[in-house]
Amino acid sequence: MTAMRVLIAWLYSNTNSLLSTQLMHACSTESLVIFSPPRVSAAQEVFWYAAYAAGLWLVIALSAVLSRARRSFFS
Which 3-state string (H, E, C) describes 2-64? Predict the structure, then answer.
């Protein structure tokens, strides 16, 4: 998922911590396993991954807006 890669890259570039990026990746993988609904059709699984990706892109958009607002506030 591209959105998760963007978030992991952003985390690493802001913290320089490989451990935090590994933990983020592990949490993402486990949340997909734990929260995915059992016994679903292929179409439902595609919808689940699309909803997860949309949520991640929303987090990226909000982070970008907040980061820009913070930079303009402190400049």
Answer: HHHHHHHHHHHHHHCCHHHHHHHHHHHHHHHHHHCCCCCCHHHHHHHHHHHHHHHHHHHHHHH
Please tell me the pTM assigned to this model.
0.74
Whats the size of the chain, residue-wise? 75
Nearest to 21 by CA among 42, 7, 3: 7
Indicate if the pLDDT at residue 73 is higher than 80.
no
Q: Which residue has the tokens 């802001």?
A: 14
